[in-house]
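Researcher: Next sequence.
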Amino acid sequence: MNDIVPFHYGAHEVRTVEIDGEPWFVAADVCTILDIGRVHDAVRGLDDDEKGADTIRTPGGDQQVTIVNEPGLYSLILRSRKPEAKAFKRWITHEVLPAIRRTGSYSVAPTSQLDILRAAIDQIEAAQLAAQRAELVAEHAAETVREVGHRVDALEGNHGWYSALAYARRRNWATSVDFLNPLGRRAGQIGRAAGLRAAKVPHPIYGEANAWPEWVWDQAYQDGAGGAA
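Model: Next structure:
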């Protein structure tokens, strides 16, 4: 039976024991923090050298508990989808392990396996962060397109000149680049030939676009620019 050393992570207790100079963690405590429901199933997926059992003293008497070593701990962290997992890993590596090392009994150098696990966690965290950022950017871009699109419609609807996008929208036509670009080029040729200068209006993608009177767009479309609508 080994002496239990408890660490407190917020309102939760993480019990640790040292076996042959190596820290082991009570699996149930770790799974509670990581929101892993079935401790037995989670531990069963670990390698044999990552898990074990120990008897600890509790107020209700001696109790045998499942424990995991540092590699086993990181394996459990990798399985957790809870955002808390990142902060928990940092707490383990920056507070718990240094505190154990200060006792002088835990001085095992990191193994290649630990390095691989730590690197895997860092990569997963970086990928998750990148995915979250990309999602936020996409949401912002979509909202910007909608907002500017409304402004384009309102502005162009007032003065009677339209961009290729607004012209196509008025007719419920395709708004793909393959359709709008040739239509816009032909409208420019017709407008300039008539001595007109394009008006600049906001555009949800390019920032601004050329606007021409509706008759210019009608002529451009009749000339076959843009292909099928």
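Model: The radius of gyration is 32 Å. The chain has two domains: 5-108, 144-222.
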